[in-house]
Amino acid sequence: MDRFELLEIIRYYAPYLSTVERELLAEKNESHNSLIQRMHSKSRYADYDVIEHCACYSASESSMCMEAPREPLTDEEEMHRLLEEFNATVSRMKAKGVDVEFLHELLDKGDVISKLFITDDLRILLPDYGNMEIEMPALPKTVYLFFLLHPEGIVLKTLEDYKTELYNIYRQIKPCGDEAKAHVTITNLINPVNNNMNEKLSQIKTFINRAFTAQMDQRLAKHYYIEGEKGGLYRLALDRNLIEFEE
To answer: pLDDT tens digits, residue range 17-56?
Structure first.
């Protein structure tokens, strides 16, 4: 198989392979059929008889082969593909001796900060990151949504003034629970003696980090934390113009 054939095959299957895989394929000298079959098995057309339709493949017949229709990648699939390529590129740069701190500085300059979108059923989505969802239990989510509704910030010692609002948010998230227990839960949450609110703020950070570690660069997670200093205002780090509630 000549180089023209190989490039045509790689070009067809490129969306389904990582950068490293493509580079390795370009260096391999495999038989025609085994190469096509191995690459094809990684794509979304595993039930298409690629060998039968492409056994005749040659440089002069390249335009007649690989005619199976290609579906566009979903946003999530495209995100994963780009992250694979990015990670492979970073690994090669590190191997070449590029300083890690320099890479972080370079990335910080180009960070895209996603909007934070709250759906009508109170899911927390990041639309600019492929609608990535930040999932958390009812009580931490109650605290998070509460702070989203108060971008000006809240002093924790004044939480008693917001007890009704916190209760209403909690009941929206968990409407089927016992009302008496819900009141006790919120009362304990805002009690300054038991430190429950600080624990929930710490848990929120953990859930945000978990979502970013699984799907994105964790450095970006810091923009979605609720932070503050003891005795001062606690607020979401994100620009309020990037917070949107579904109407």
So the answer is: 445 444 555 555 444 455 555 555 544 444 444 444 444 4
Question: What integer is the mean pLDDT of 87-99?
Answer: 74
pLDDT at 50 (0 to 100): 41
Q: By C-alpha distance, which of 246, 244, 200 is closest to 225?
A: 200
DSSP symbols for 33-66: HHHHHHHHTTSS-TTS-HHHHHTT--GGGGGGS-
**With the C-alpha atoms ordered 205, 206, 207, 213, is the resulting torsion angle positive or negative?**
positive
Identity of residue 148: L
Query: Residues near 92 by Cβ (< 8 Å), separated by ≥ 6?
Result: none
Strand, coil or helix: what is 216? coil
Query: Is the model's pLDDT at 142 over the cut of 80?
Result: yes
Distance CA 218, CA 237 (A): 15
Q: What is the pLDDT of residue 122?
A: 95
Supply the pLDDT for residue 136: 96
Spell out the domain ranges in the chain. Answer: 3-64, 75-109, 116-245
Check the CA dihedral 116-120-122-123 and report its sign: negative
Pairing of strands 124-126, 132-133: antiparallel
How many helices (H) and strands (E) in the chain?
A: 10, 7
Average pLDDT score, the chain: 76
Contacts of 65 (CB under 8 A, 6+ apart): 8, 53, 54, 56, 57
Q: Coil, strand or helix: which one is 121?
A: coil
On whether the CB atoms of residues 145 and 120 are closer than 8 A, the answer is no
Question: How far apart (Å, rounded) are the C-alpha atoms in residues 83 and 204?
Answer: 25
